[in-house]
Amino acid sequence: MARDISAALRSGGGWFYAIVFFTLFAALAGIAIGPELSSLRSAAPAIVWLAAAFATELSVANAFHDDARDGSLRILAAEQESLLPYVLGKAAGFVVVSAAPMLVAAPVLLAMFGIAPERLAGAAVLLALGMPAIMLTALFAAALAAGLRAGGLFTTLIAAPFAVPPLIFGVLATENHVAGGALWSPEALILAALSLFMAALTPAFAVAALRLALE
Q: pLDDT at residue 214 above 80?
């Protein structure tokens, strides 16, 4: 985790592209929709969630690729009894470098689209609730693609379909909240359940995928 964060801060690392893509996607989508505030307000939840999903998948796509290519992953696998701390460190590094800036930027983008100020914090909470499901799916796909030459593209193709459920319930929960509904709606609870489900499964499956890639 410390190594990945240090590399990102020192060189701009690939993960810093997440916040750039997130903000550019949302801003350009808003421009494409037009200046009508009612249209922007209704489309805001879908725009922000789509931007977060694409930025997350692109930033996690090559999470293990460089380590597999330069032999670091093989050394770690030989020295450690389990790769679980390594996988958790990768996930934590993404949260610090990419997910946290996106969560900070999300209320600003939603405010630009005309969402009421008192609803911005709740919308960011919902995004934080569903982002683990998207991120962990992409992380598992990255583990499957570790060592492949076209690993980034392969990761995106695998992870994209599994991002659909968090997107659906995330957009529904956010739309309900910004329209004046409760924060903890049934859609929000399902979103939390998806994140918990992926948190329970992904680490073990990612470790197994990495071990398989090294054989």
A: no
d(CA 37, CA 113): 7
Question: Residues 8-20: what's their mean pLDDT?
Answer: 66
Tokens in use for 147? Answer: 């060592």
For 16, 54, 88, 169, the CA distances from 9, given in Å and listed in that order, are 8, 22, 19, 33
**Nearest alpha carbon to residue 159 among 202, 105, 189, 204:** 202
Q: Identify the pLDDT of residue 193.
A: 94
Q: Which residues contact 177 (CB under 8 A, 6 or more apart)?
A: 119, 122, 123, 126, 183, 185, 188
Predicted confidence (pLDDT) at residue 14 exceeds the cutoff of 60: no
